Automatic annotation (TrEMBL):
HAMAP family: OMPdecase_type1_B (MF_01200_B). Residues 5-230 form the Orotidine 5'-phosphate decarboxylase domain. Belongs to the OMP decarboxylase family. Type 1 subfamily. Homodimer. Substrate binds at residues 11, 33, 60-69, 123, 185, 194, 214-215. InterPro entries: Aldolase_TIM (IPR013785), OMPdecase (IPR014732), OMPdecase_AS (IPR018089), OMPdecase_bac (IPR047596), OMPdeCOase_dom (IPR001754), RibuloseP-bd_barrel (IPR011060). Pathway: Pyrimidine metabolism; UMP biosynthesis via de novo pathway; UMP from orotate: step 2/2. The lineage of its organism: Bacteria, Bacillati, Bacillota, Bacilli, Bacillales. It catalyses: orotidine 5'-phosphate + H(+) = UMP + CO2. Its EC number is 4.1.1.23. Catalyzes the decarboxylation of orotidine 5'-monophosphate (OMP) to uridine 5'-monophosphate (UMP). The active site is at K62. This is Orotidine 5'-phosphate decarboxylase.
Length: 239
């Protein structure tokens, strides 16, 4: 997972739209994220099609259920040949351990188990919401760091978090623990609905493992040059 290119969030409504977007890319070996919208529309077949196009896949389904159900879900997902999957840390330690066991049980012999990461707090969760709706009194950042430690103790490979949280997380977990960070924007981009955004170079400075970029690439006038610009900034190389 280290030194991965920017992961492109394929937040499209159909396979057709997805392929029209991907057709613009020729030489690049892409790492893409398939979320609920596209997966629920197209099913596992979309994963196979993306793999035929040479894409590595982060399957972002954020599983959260009782441990047995998550075990069975992960056992199925392990057969899809994706590189990265996730669960909600809020499901607790036993659920995360079951997720990992399910992945291990379902990974075909001779293949690499997909990396498993946990969502700490969604970026749409605010401190007010945590306190007044969910009745969680501790500061949001404390919960993020605590969930990260819990994920590591459960044997997971990393977490989804914001760039701004990464340095706090690395004070609590080992440096080979993955931090996969959405909310990435170029300095001259629109923020859309993301609140705590960061640029690719800031993400690199903060030592995060991977960046996830959606609209800054998918909605750009020229997605390929946007992807390359973001990639150069992320890798610290000249365009
Ligand atoms: O378009 P944008 O770059 O904001 O897309 C970010 C992607 O990362 C979206 O697919 C969004 O669902 C996902 N994500 C996020 N915040 C999280 C977890 C996932 O923005 N905490």
């Amino acid at each position: 997972m280290k030194h991965t290119p920017p992961i492109i969030a394929l937040d499209f409504a159909s396979a057709q739209e997805t392929y029209a977007f991907l057709d613009r890319f020729q030489e690049e070996e892409l790492f893409v994220k398939v979320g609920m919208e596209l997966f629920y529309q197209e099913g596992p077949a979309i994963l196979e099609k993306l793999q035929e196009r040479g894409c590595r896949i982060f399957l972002d389904l954020k599983c959260h259920d009782i441990p047995t159900t998550v075990y069975k879900a992960m056992k199925r997902l392990a057969g899809f040949g994706v590189s990265l999957v996730n669960v909600h840390a809020a499901g607790g330690k036993q659920m995360m351990e079951s997720a990992l066991e399910g992945l291990e049980a379902g990974t075909p012999a001779g293949q690499k188990r997909p990396s498993l990461i946990a969502v700490t707090q969604l970026t749409s969760t605010s401190s007010e919401m945590l306190q007044h709706e969910l009745l969680i009194e501790r500061p949001l950042l404390d919960t993020v760091v605590h969930y990260s430690r819990l994920a590591e103790e459960s044997g997971l490979d990393g977490v989804v978090c914001s760039v701004h949280e990464a340095e706090h997380i690395y004070r609590a977990v080992s440096l080979d623990f993955l931090t996969v960070t959405p909310g990435i924007r170029m300095a001259d981009d629109k923020n859309n609905d993301q609140v705590r955004v960061a640029t690719p170079s800031y993400a690199r400075e903060k030592g995060v493992s991977a960046i996830v970029v959606g609209r800054s690439i998918t909605q750009a006038e020229d997605p390929v040059s946007a992807y390359r610009r973001i990639g150069h900034e992320w890798e610290g190389t000249k365009a």
